[in-house]
Specification:
Layout: H1 2-8, E1 17-18, H2 24-33, E2 40-41, H3 50-55, E3 64-66, E4 72-75, H4 79-90
Parallel strand pairs: 1-2
Antiparallel strand pairs: 3-4
Amino acid sequence: IQELYKEYRSKGFQVVGVSLDVDKDYWRRTVNERHLRWPHLCDLLGWESEAIKSWGIHSIPTSVLVGPDGRIAAINLTGDKIADKLEEVYNE
């Protein structure tokens, strides 16, 4: 995701990380150590998180790709499939 973020950020691609951590120090340390430079959300409630409940997330990682038009372009893509979809969305 980091490489894709670097490549497509100037075109409007944004990543928002939602963490299921329950340990604030661990969560913050991990974000910093991995140099994850996009916004991160964590209510420290783990699987009891409101985001999990309201968004219907049942497994991690979960990805939701929202296109520049504000519509969901894809759900639960991984690896090269994310890269392919970003190329499709941003290079049309």
